[in-house]
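Extended Data, panel c. Modelled sequence:
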Amino acid sequence: AETPMPLLYRRNFTKAPQWDFDDVYNQDAPPRPTTCAQSLRNSKDENFKKAFLPNIRLFLHKDNINMSEWNRLSHFNNPFGFMECKYDEVMASVKLIPKPKEPLLLPKPGADGCIHCAVVGTAGILNGSKVGAEIDAHDYVFRMNGAVIKGYEEDVGNRTSVYVHTEHSIAASPYFFGKYGYKSAPHDEGIKYVLIPEAMRDFRWLEGLFKGHEGYSDRLLTLPVFLYFLFVCLFFNHRFLKSPNLNKRFWAIVRPTNGAFTLFLALHICDTVIFNNKAVFEF
C-alpha cells in the first residue's frame, strides 16, 4: 500500500523548488454550466483564457484526497501544499470536513442567470466612496480578514456572503481593527466561511471547530466551513501571481495575500466580479 513520503523541509531549498507536476491541477467534471452571456467564462482576453481553469477543484474535504495526492502536495509549502506536515496530524482535521452538499454559491432565482459578485478589501480605499448600496446590490459579497462594516455601511455595504480568512486573521483582526469598531467575523444569515490553510495551526483550528472545543463560537459551528484546496492556491500562484521573489532565499514566505486569494476565488465561482468597486474583467 502507498504510504506518506518522507518529509521535505523548506530550509533545504534556497529557492522555491520546481517539479514536473508544478502546473498540474485537480479538476471537477463537468464545469459549472452558465447561461450568463457576460460571464468571465466567455472572456475574449487571451491571457485570461490561457490561465483560467473553470472547473478547477476549489475545496478540500474528506472524500477528495488520497495518498497519491497527499504525496504530490507534500512537495509544496503552505498554503500551497503539505511540506513539513505530518500526514496523521493534518488528516485528523481533514477527515472531519464533510463533502459540500451544494456549490459555494448558486444563481439567484428569477435573476438574469448570472452570479454577480463584489469583493471588498480592507485597506480603506472605499472610505468616503458612498458605494455601499451598490456593493450590497450584488448577488454575493465577499470579504476577508478585518472586515470593518459597522459605522461604514454607506461606503462598504453591510452584507457578507463569503468570508475568507486564516486562523491568524480571524483571531487577530479584532485586535488590529478594534480601533475601527471591529469585534468579530461577520455572522450574516447563510454566510459561508472559507479557510486558507497557511500553517499547521489552521488545521488544528479546524479540528477544534468541528469537535466543538471551548473557545469556538457556537454560531460559527452551525455554519458551512470550506477549506480552500491547497492546489488551487498553488494554481493562483503559478498562473496569476508568479513572483520573482520565489527565486530568493525567503521564497517560503512569498504568497498571495488573503485579499488576492479572495478575488481569485470569486473569479472562479462568479460570472461577474467587481473589486473595491472596479470591474476586474469586462466581457
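The radius of gyration is 19 Å. This feature is highlighted in the accompanying rendering.
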